[in-house]
Structure formats: C-alpha cells, structure tokens
Amino acid sequence: MKRNKDIWVFGDYRNYFQNRVTLQILARAVDLSTQTGGTVCAVVLGHRVDTYVAEYIAHGAQKVYVIDDPTLRSYSIERYSWLMSWLVTRYQPETLLVGATRFGQEIAPRVAKKLKTGLTADCIDLEINTKGLLVQTAPSFGGNLIAKIITPVKRPQMATVRPGTFPELPHDDAANGQVMVLPLPGDLPEDRIRLVTSEHRPSKKQKIEDADIVICGGRGMGSKGKFKKLFDLAALMNAEVGATRPVVYSEWVSHDALVGQAGKNIKPKILLSFGISGAIQHTAALSDAHFIVAVNKNPNATMMKMADVAIVADANQVCLGIIKAIKEKARD
Ligand SMILES: Cc1cc2nc3c(=O)[nH]c(=O)nc-3n(C[C@H](O)[C@H](O)[C@H](O)COP(=O)(O)OP(=O)(O)OC[C@H]3O[C@@H](n4cnc5c(N)ncnc54)[C@H](O)[C@@H]3O)c2cc1C
Predict the structure, then answer these.
(1) Distance from the CA of 322 to the center of ligand 1, in angstroms?
(2) Which of 281, 292, 319 to mutate to test the pocket of ligand 1 (most atoms within 8 A of CB)?
(3) How many CB atoms are closer than 10 A to CB 144?
(4) Which tens digit of pLDDT belongs to each residue from 94-148?
(5) What is the DSSP track for 251-292?
(6) Same fold, 7-181 and 208-331
(7) In angstroms, what is the span from residue 24 Cα to ligand 1's centroid?
(8) Atom 29 (ligand 1): residue with closest C-alpha?
(9) Which of 169, 194, 219, 310 has its CA 20 to 30 A from that of 17?
(10) Which range scores top for mean pLDDT: 3-17, 184-198, 274-288?
(11) 94 Cα–ligand 1 center, Å
C-alpha cells in the first residue's frame, strides 16, 4: 500500500479514567490534519474494547483500527508492539503518536525499532512546518534545552506526547467514524510472558494535570519542612501540590510534582502559588490556569504580576493562616 497522510494515535486506554492522554493527542491530531490532509485514526488493541472505540470517535477519530481478541485481554509488550508495527507496515500512516505514559514509553520505542524509524520522546508540542513535516518539540539534556526535532526521511514520524500537553475536544455523541475490525494475524508470535495474576490498586491521588485546585510552592517556602505544610493545605482543599525546579532539585518533593517546561502542564480552576518568582520555564505551564492567587514577599515578582490576586506576605505565614482558617471553619 502507498504511504498516505494519515495520523495515527495509539489507543492507550488502560487506566483510562485516570489517563486521558489519547483524547488529548486526538485533539491535536485533528488540528494537524487540517494542515496536512489525511485521516485521524486511533488504534485499539484488546478485548471488549467497544467503549474506547466509541469514545475515540466522539473525541475526533475519523477511523479506528481495532483488533479485538480474547488473547489480547491482558497486555503483552511483545504482542502489542508486534501488532502495532504490523498494522503500520500494512496501512502506512505518515505519523504515529503515542501517550508518554509508562505504557506508551514502553511500547513506542519497540515499535520504532521494529519499523526502523525515529522517535521523539515526551513531546510538549507538535506542529507542522512549511514542508509539511511534523515538528516535535521535546525537552532534552535533563530539561536544559528544548529541542525541535523533525523526521525528514524515515516513516512514520513517531512521537510520544506528555499527558496534559493538549486540551481534549469536547465529547461529541453525534460524531461519525469508520471502524475497521481486523482479525488477529496468523503469524502473531506466541507470547513468551505468561500473566499469572493482576490486581488493580486504585490510587486516591488525582493527577496534577487534571486537578481543579493546584497549590504550587517555590524556593520561597524556605525549607523541606515548611514546604510540607503545603501538603496539609492541599489535603484540606482536595488539591494537588506542584513545585518549581529548585524545590525538586533540593529534594523537598519528588520530580512528579515539577510544574513547567521540564515537568507538567496544569490547567486548574484555582492555582495558589507560594514563594515562586515566575520564571518563564515555570509559567509556560500555567497558561490554562483560570484563577491565580500568588503569595510572595516581593510585589514585583513576575508571578505576582500575572496573578489575579497578589498577596505581599511571607508564604509560610499565609499557608499556616489558611490551614487554621479552614480548620476553624470546619469546627463551626
Ligand atoms: C532549560 C530550563 C528548564 C527549566 N524548567 C523548569 C520547570 O519546568 N519548572 C520550573 O519551575 N523551573 C524550571 N526552570 C528553572 C526556572 O528558570 C527558575 O529558576 C525556577 O522556576 C525558579 O523557581 P522559584 O520561583 O521556586 O525560585 P526563585 O526564582 O528563587 O524564586 C523564589 C521566590 O520566592 C520569593 N520569596 C522568598 N522568600 C519568601 C517568603 N518567605 N515568602 C514569600 N515569598 C518568598 C522570592 O521573592 C522569589 O520571588 C528551568 C530552567 C531552565 C534553564
């Protein structure tokens, strides 16, 4: 088959309700396809996957390739990566996008290797250049550089995309999409790994990228002990805690909490920012925050200027004050 302009999105539906990255990538693929032409396609491998097929169509997929078989019920890296490369070889899409989840990070490089193409990992933007090539923007050298990478020769152009990078399209029940149900290929290799048992452990923690309230702390919190108070406040407000790079580098909090160019993009309804100067590498990830309250000793800090409410005060004192007020209110 001749190569076409199609943009494929790997259906990463495992942990679907915590992980909407496929929907986010579909939305971007729809944007990109208006510039390149071609069809936006999702690929779903598994068993009894109708719900996800319908969901992907409702979120922008014009076509969904499905291989539904009981032997695919449990995930197998060997079989899934083999099937993905088989499908790509057969249908020749121009581009293949995968969520940079643990699952996606495992499968994407294997597929790229089988297809002998390049892969840009953990992209934070995707655009089309004047030559119609996919420009894949990703942090590199530990976040010290932002690289814009193209794949001029090999195909497909492959990228994994960081969750939370793009907003998903609204669910459209009336959307139509073509569903291509394919049988399991006869030459699919036997699985060398046998799943003995699996257990679902629901996480109580919501993802910072999806949280309605985020409390971000910076170096101005002063110490690891003082920073911990932000977690007490977050527990009272059902919020998630984010941090700036110096805080993460000082190991006051794990890398998961990093907000910014080298970390997560967030889109909370309310963002409380404590002791943060507002460097561009941090604020780049806040453009979708609806309402920002910043606390800083310096009224001229950039973060204070971009806030809806700027409180000139000691960040620890304000944090402790809010905790006290919430607790008192709860006692009333
Ligand atoms: C390639 C690259 C990538 C980067 N990626 C990221 C990224 O993803 N995320 C990120 O956050 N940074 C990133 N950075 C670092 C970024 O440039 C800034 O250095 C960082 O965001 C600053 O963090 P901060 O605001 O906590 O610290 P500072 O800039 O030191 O600011 C501390 C603030 O706290 C205030 N303050 C001090 N004491 C108090 C107090 N008691 N009460 C109230 N306020 C107080 C100060 O007035 C100041 O405004 C990156 C840098 C580079 C070069």
Answers:
(1) 23
(2) 281
(3) 8
(4) 999 999 988 899 999 999 999 999 999 999 999 999 999 999 999 887 667 889 9
(5) TSS-GGGBBSTTSB----SEEEEES----HHHHGGGTT-SEE
(6) yes
(7) 28
(8) 277
(9) 194
(10) 274-288
(11) 40
Rounded distance, CA 36 to CA 263, Å?
Answer: 29
Which residue reads 């499908």 in tokens?
87
For residue range 155-179, list pLDDT tens digits in order: 999 999 988 889 899 999 899 999 9
Question: Which atom number of ligand 1 is nearest to the Cα of residue 218?
Answer: 26
Distance CA 119, CA 111 (A): 9
- Nearest in space to 99 (alpha carbons), one of 214, 182, 202, 18: 18
Task: Tell me, in angstroms, the distance from the centre of ligand 1 to residue 102's CA.
Answer: 28
To test the pocket of ligand 1, the residue of 258, 259, 276 to mutate (highest count of ligand atoms within 8 Å of its CB) is 276
The set of protein residues with a Cβ atom below 6 angstroms from ligand 1 is: 143-144, 218-220, 222, 244-247, 258-263, 275-277, 279, 281-282, 295-298, 301, 314-315
CA-CA distance, 168 to 60, in Å (whole number)?
A: 9
Amino acid symbol at 2:
K
Listed in sequence order, the residues at least 6 apart from 104 whose beta carbon sits closer than 8 Å to its beta carbon are 10, 12, 21, 98, 160
Residue 279 CA to ligand 1 centre (angstroms): 6
- Considering the four listed CATH numbers 1.10.10.10, 3.40.50.720, 3.40.50.1220, 2.60.120.600, the one that applies to the domain covering 208-331 is 3.40.50.1220
* CATH T-level fold of 7-181: Rossmann fold (3.40.50)
> In the beta sheet, which residues pair with residue 146?
139
Of ligand 1's listed atoms, the one at least distance from the Cα of 144 is: 1
Q: Note if the pTM is more than 0.70.
A: no
* Separation CA 71–CA 184 (nearest Å): 9
Q: Which atom of ligand 1 is nearest to the CA of 278?
A: 25
Domain boundaries, the chain: 7-181, 208-331
Measured over the CA atoms of residue 212, residue 21, residue 106 and residue 259, the dihedral's sign is negative
